[in-house]
């Protein structure tokens, strides 16, 4: 089976066995040589990304305990910006301005790894004079 790629989504096969994945997971980063897969749960209240063994996730896929899925995008994704409320765009733009420097290519994988993510977020919060919780959100 082909390894998971960036932006692919997988989930536990319903009613089989507990896999540790309670909700669908979107792949954020994969490093096969280091056996690392970083994914984030697709759920209403977003959590931090998780770091997993790529081999273990692939084993669960091969064993039929996990499955790849297609995720339907929400209808507003296809709307032109002119059709979206200005306040919604402002919220999006303010949030993006806070995190944009943290998601640069040169910060990957550090922004995904718990031991280095905290340091980056603390530095960004200090730079913006924000509480670190505001950067995490």
Give a verbal description of the structure.
It is a single chain. The chain is α+β, with helices and mostly antiparallel strands and 137 residues long. Helix content is 31%, strand content 18%. A five-stranded antiparallel beta sheet has the order 4-3-2-1-5, with helices on one face. The protein is globular and about 45 Å long. The protein starts with 8 loop residues before the first strand and ends with a helix. The mean pLDDT is 89.
Task: Label this structure with key terms.
4 helices; 18% strand; globular; 137 residues; five-stranded antiparallel β-sheet
Q: How would you sum up the global shape?
A: globular
Helices and strands, in order, run as EEEEHEHHH
The tally of beta strands, per DSSP, is 5
Strand numbers in spatial order across the main sheet: 4-3-2-1-5
Query: Could you tell me the mean pLDDT?
Result: 89
Instruction: Point out poorly predicted stretches.
Output: none
Structural class: alpha+beta
List the total number of helices. Answer: 4
Estimated radius of gyration: 17 Å
Task: Please state roughly what percent of the residues sit in beta strands, choosing from under 5%, 5-15%, 15-25%, 25-35%, 35-45% or over 45%.
Answer: 15-25%
Largest β sheet strand count, sense and barrel closure:
5 strands, antiparallel
- State the helical fraction: 25-40%
State the separation between the terminal residues, measured CA to CA. Answer: 35 Å
